Amino acid sequence: MSHVKNRPLSPEQLDAFGAELDAIQQTALQDVGDVDARYIRRVLKTVRYSEVIGRALLYFSFFPPAWILGTLVLGISKILDNMELGHNVMHGQYDFMNDPALNGKTFEWDIAGTSDNWRQSHNYLHHTYTNIKGMDADIGYGLLRLFPEQRWRPFYLLQPIWAFLLAVLFQWGVAIQELELGKVFSGRKSKAVIKKELEPVLKKARYQLLKDYVFFPLLGGPMFFAVLSGNLTANLMRNLWTYMIIFCGHFTADAEVFPKSIMEKEGRGHWYLRQLRGSSNLRGGKIFHILSGNLSHQIEHHLFPTVPARRYAELSVKVQEVCKKYGQNYNSGSLPSQFGQVLYRIFRHALPSKPSSAVPAMGV
């Protein structure tokens, strides 16, 4: 358990810890400006141009390399749209630009989930209640038991299968996450409410399905099935990649889960500490970080969600210095190592398990 790697902090030390992180964030926000605006506009152009190139190449699929290259380019375009563009813009990281095309409150991305639902389930709930059991729906996405603190049920015996299906269909899992279908089945949500909530979800799903599996394939004429299979493969690429990156952000071996009581009298320093201990980073090169939407720096993202993500690598150096000063574990590793730990959690906690220690994870 990672809490054995962390030094207990007194209330005064917690306040000082929070103040140092506040100062890092404030300095970064004061420096945000033209360089960030130019960067995100380049990302937006790259997404748009690569989508056009990828889709155009698929219309020449009678030449097999064109299908492979077109699918790859389209898949990368969808990954960029999802991660470095959509995710970060909708966090409001570029609202300072006052550009309607990059406004966090109105941006719509190329996945099945509606942006409005995501802003509620991710921007608000996940970032406010990070890794708090019963409050953060991202813990297992309502399907998986990833921590021994979660109550075991026989349903979890097959969770390696549920985890595989969630990875393959990840955009659809995100799309229905906000609906909380479990409450419908248990009678805690009325049919009238779920019917109203389903309307925008079905509208977005219909648009995405018609676009990728009807409209663009029809434009391909005799290449209909080649274009359709290219779109299907590109979406699968995006689903698997985002699943890996996001699961590595909160479910590695040292990532902790917290009880609801953690919020009682939670101050700023305590909040920062929970974000730190509930998150984990991935090491890699510049291209890797861009394709992950810089969520490879999940710790910095959770500490400073409104700071443009392109700055996280620079901020991570300062955050590590603060963690070292206050004796806190900075959870970071390679993608194979961190994802291997996620897979271990999926298989291990499919079976009954108990927390290894009675020591409160956030005790001071």
Automatic annotation (TrEMBL):
Keyword tags: Membrane, Transmembrane, Transmembrane helix
InterPro entries referenced in this protein's UniProt entry, alphabetically: FA_desaturase_dom, Fatty_acid_desaturase
Sequence intervals crossing the membrane: 57-80, 161-181, 213-234
Fatty acid desaturase domain segment(s): 65-332
Protein name, per record: Fatty acid desaturase
Organism in which the protein naturally occurs: Zhongshania arctica
